[in-house]
Amino acid sequence: MNTPQPTDRLPRTGRALRGTEAARKHLARTAVIARQLDIIAPGTVHVRTVHVWTDRDDRHRAATWVTLDDALGLPVRADHAAHRAARGLLRRMFPAADWTRPLDYDAHTGALTYDEPAAPAELGLDDQEPRQ
User: pTM (2 decimals)?
Assistant: First the structure.
């Protein structure tokens, strides 16, 4: 006989509604961050952070290098406080991110991605074996 089997899956409409809600929250969050970045340093579209070590006051210290760029990739004129505020904003909005790795935030898409250097594909370095 046909016995109903319990499932943990949501019906399609339930999944669609959850997806719509998640997209709405993402768009709202992206708009808030973009608005606040524009208040901190007008014209900022990209925020890049790199964890570095410095020798300041004869002590080895960890620091974070922050760059604020416009839509063309050119640096935005901002003081030290603006750079610090932009980094603080992103740290509060993305608390689960690994801030010891280089990161790039794009205010247009709302994406926080790892910004690690890579060789261009035209060089074909990934196909070669290491030299001995």
Answer: 0.73
